[in-house]
From TrEMBL:
<comment type="similarity">
    <text>Belongs to the class-II aminoacyl-tRNA synthetase family.</text>
</comment>
<keyword id="KW-0963">Cytoplasm</keyword>
<dbReference type="GO" id="GO:0006426">
    <property type="term" value="P:glycyl-tRNA aminoacylation"/>
</dbReference>
<dbReference type="Pfam" id="PF05746">
    <property type="entry name" value="DALR_1"/>
</dbReference>
<keyword id="KW-0547">Nucleotide-binding</keyword>
<keyword id="KW-0030">Aminoacyl-tRNA synthetase</keyword>
<keyword id="KW-0436">Ligase</keyword>
<dbReference type="Pfam" id="PF02092">
    <property type="entry name" value="tRNA_synt_2f"/>
</dbReference>
<dbReference type="GO" id="GO:0005829">
    <property type="term" value="C:cytosol"/>
</dbReference>
<dbReference type="GO" id="GO:0005524">
    <property type="term" value="F:ATP binding"/>
</dbReference>
<dbReference type="InterPro" id="IPR015944">
    <property type="entry name" value="Gly-tRNA-synth_bsu"/>
</dbReference>
<dbReference type="InterPro" id="IPR008909">
    <property type="entry name" value="DALR_anticod-bd"/>
</dbReference>
<dbReference type="InterPro" id="IPR006194">
    <property type="entry name" value="Gly-tRNA-synth_heterodimer"/>
</dbReference>
<dbReference type="GO" id="GO:0004814">
    <property type="term" value="F:arginine-tRNA ligase activity"/>
</dbReference>
<keyword id="KW-0067">ATP-binding</keyword>
<feature type="domain" description="DALR anticodon binding">
    <location>
        <begin position="600"/>
        <end position="691"/>
    </location>
</feature>
<protein>
    <recommendedName>
        <fullName>Glycine--tRNA ligase beta subunit</fullName>
        <ecNumber>6.1.1.14</ecNumber>
    </recommendedName>
</protein>
Length: 705
């Protein structure tokens, strides 16, 4: 017979960030603790509100199965002497609690097995709970101690409830004895709530005005917000992070709408969102589904059904009003000066003590942005591959340099001082208000992008150049002063900066010589002239991020293999965009039937050439002695002609696959190390040319063969 199990910890209001993790840890600890002891369990459900975390398990066995404890003693050679037990054997018998005669033998050693009946589950739960509490403590770095006891938890514990079926389990912790009592909503149902069965937990709490199920509560909150927004004729901005936080803050969700004065709509929408959402945990309302036109309405989630809702609304509005008033005052004060005036103050703001001021950083950024823009045309091709640089290209350079010099100016404005998360965004607004070109304003607004995985890269070329310059300067500066990240610490977020550089190159289609740009960025640092070691370490650091970004990605229904990336990296290419294109081409090539044979042949060729030492590259067809030599030579010539016309790396590798048959025939019929030195040298030269072909797109010897 199986029974449901319930274990609930009731406490003072938990911090929102701990509510769900602690509930999951409780559920995991109890379920795993029972399973470890051989007690079968069914499904597990966790519940969490600000005042409680709980786990409910279905179909829990009432006891362990019978247990067999096996003990292995000393080897027989040490246990017996002249047919009599040695002190070691007698000591093992005492340890087992039996006479020596009761011991058995197994695998050449003394052996004893003791069968004991399984313990009732109700007796196991207290020790499992204590183990689980120790695991939960690891989630909370700072815990509270209350009253006269020594127990600690994230917040003072007020009650414990533990039932197995209909029976209360004698559990004691935090100076409390568990019972069948739980508690409903603090105001709507404050009296103790006795539970008749562990299976009735969620339903009993719903009658006591508590939505204990996190997923149901979250869905209800979303539904109420959307309904309230629709009544206002708008659409609510609902982010998952804010929704999760609000879900962890309430037990009885009640959506209430509010409003602020229309004069505050003079503020940029991001300022209002930061004030209303970030500071107050309210949801803003927009008039369009694209969420571009902000209204003066907001929606809050209350934890109580008020008899006078107007008082709650007035209180919410009263909290928002002074914050928006301050924000509007700061914004209007900031607009009294153009952005260039703020940028001039950056010389007094330290970027890093060994790297100078932010003013110095923006000058380095401007130099880097100019260099990047000068080498990349507006269509994303290297300037050296087009006839001339167009006027648009020159404007990209002009806009990028201007944006680089102004992009950090908002750091000394009042609004960014109050809302640091709006840096860059406010700079874009101030640039527009200052009369800067729209391309400059957009570049300033977006120059921090991409900020994390999933966020877009800058949408304009000028913005991409400035973002690259910013990230390259930070990477070069921190590496130059010897503070590169360790395996566990990255205080300057250099891995994120490196990935941002790569994403801009790849997604923006920019053929950037990354090693050259990193070297120039290092050159500009106050730490001194170019250091080849620093540049090499920095380039390798970024390439490691590229490997992590590409390897494992699904392409053509298969994940990209690490060998595929390494085959391209082996060529020492400095252009991330070119590396990606080659990797994708090789990824397609390895699926061809010819790929393993060519990879194996290239490995063999490489070993032969390595043993041969220096090899002349010229081939003399007159010295061929076997038809297979000539066939391979002609096939290579044909393949080279095709490659000269190929427009993609994929086509080159497809062409290379046609060499499989003549390569196989060559190695089957031709002895490379012929006795005649001239013939041997000619065959080695042929293999050297073939090796070069196998390294045209990637080093095929790195691939599985």
């Amino acid at each position: 017979m199986t029974l449901p199990l319930l274990l609930e910890i009731g406490c003072e209001d938990l911090p929102a960030r701990y509510v769900v993790p602690l509930a999951n840890a409780l559920g995991r600890g109890i379920a795993e603790g029972l399973a470890k002891r051989g007690v079968s369990v069914g499904t597990s459900s966790v519940f969490a509100t600000p005042r409680r975390i709980a786990v409910q398990l279905s179909d829990v066995a009432q006891s362990q199965p019978d247990q067999t404890a096996e003990m292995v003693g000393p080897a027989l050679a040490a246990a017996l002497k002249d047919g009599q037990p040695t002190p070691a054997a007698l000591g093992f018998a005492r340890k087992c609690g039996v006479e020596f005669s009761a011991l058995g033998q197994k695998d050449g050693k003394l052996y004893f097995a003791r069968n004991t009946p399984g313990r009732p589950t109700r007796e196991l739960i207290p020790e499992i709970f204590q183990d689980t509490l120790r695991q939960m403590d690891e989630l909370v770095p700072k815990r509270m101690r209350w009253g006269a006891g020594d127990a600690t938890f994230v917040r003072p514990v007020e009650w414990l409830c533990c039932l197995l079926g209909t029976e209360s389990i004698p559990l004691r912790a935090f100076g409390l004895d568990a019972s069948r009592l739980t508690y409903g909503h603090r105001f709507h149902a404050p009296d103790p709530l006795p539970l008749t069965s562990a299976a009735h937990y969620a339903d009993a709490l719903r009658t006591a005005r508590v939505w204990a199920d996190v997923a149901l509560r979250k869905a209800e909150i979303r539904s109420q917000i959307e309904t309230a927004a629709a009544k206002l004729g708008g659409h609510a901005r609902i982010t998952e992070d804010l929704l999760d936080e609000v879900t962890a803050l309430v037990e009885l969700p009640v959506a209430i709408a509010g409003r602020f004065e229309e004069r505050f709509l003079e503020l940029p929408p991001e300022v209002i969102v930061a004030t209303v959402e970030t500071n107050q945990r309210y949801f803003t309302v927009f008039s369009d589904t694209a969420l571009t036109r902000l209204t003066n309405h907001f929606i809050t989630i209350s934890n109580i059904e008020s008899r006078d809702e107007s008082q709650v609304i007035a209180g919410n509005e009263r909290v928002v009003r002074p914050r928006l008033t301050d924000a509007l005052f700061f914004y209007q004060q900031d607009l009294k000066h153009p952005l260039v005036d703020y940028a001039a103050k950056l010389d007094a703001v330290t970027f890093q003590k060994d790297l100078g001021s932010i003013g110095a950083k923006v000058e380095r950024m401007a130099a880097l942005a100019r260099g990047i823009a000068a080498t990349i045309a507006a269509d994303g091709q290297p300037v050296g591959q087009v006839a001339s640089v167009s006027r648009d290209d020159l404007r990209f350079e002009e806009w990028a340099v201007r944006a680089a010099r102004l992009c950090k100016g908002d750091l000394v404005t009042k609004v960014v001082y109050e809302f640091p998360e709006l840096q860059g965004l406010m700079g874009g607004y101030y640039a527009s208000k200052s009369g800067e070109h729209p391309e400059v304003a957009v570049a300033i607004r977006e120059h921090y992008l991409p900020t994390q995985q999933g966020t877009p890269i800058p949408s304009t070329r000028a913005g991409q150049y400035v973002a690259l310059a910013d990230k390259l300067d930070t990477l070069a500066g921190i590496f130059a002063i010897g503070q590169k990240p360790s395996a566990s610490k990255d205080p300057f977020a250099l891995r994120r900066a490196a990935l941002g550089v790569l994403r801009i190159c790849l997604e923006g289609g920019l053929p950037l010589d990354l090693r050259q740009q990193l070297a120039e960025a290092v050159d500009l640092q106050p730490a001194g002239k170019r250091d080849a070691t620093v540049v090499a370490e920095l380039f390798e650091f970024v390439m490691e991020r590229l490997r992590a970004w590409l390897v494992g990605q699904e392409h053509e229904g298969r994940p990209i293999a690490i060998e595929t990336f390494e085959s391209v990296k082996a060529l020492g290419i400095h252009y991330p965009l070119d590396v990606q294109r080659r990797v994708l081409a090789v990824h397609g090539f390895v699926a061809l039937e010819a790929a393993p044979n060519l990879a194996a042949a290239n490995k063999r060729i490489r070993n032969i050439l390595k043993q041969a030492g220096a090899v002349e590259a010229s081939v003399d067809p007159a010295k061929f002695e076997h038809a297979a030599e000539g066939a391979l030579f002609e096939a290579m010539k044909a393949q080279a002609a095709l490659n000269a016309q190929a427009t993609s790396y994929t086509q080159k590798l497809v062409n290379l696959a046609s060499l499989r048959a003549p390569v196989d025939a060559f190695f089957e019929r031709v002895m490379v190390n012929a006795e005649d030195p001239a013939v041997r040298a000619n065959r080695l030269a042929l293999l050297k040319q073939l090796d070069a072909m196998c390294r045209d797109v990637a080093d095929l010897s790195c691939l599985p063969g």
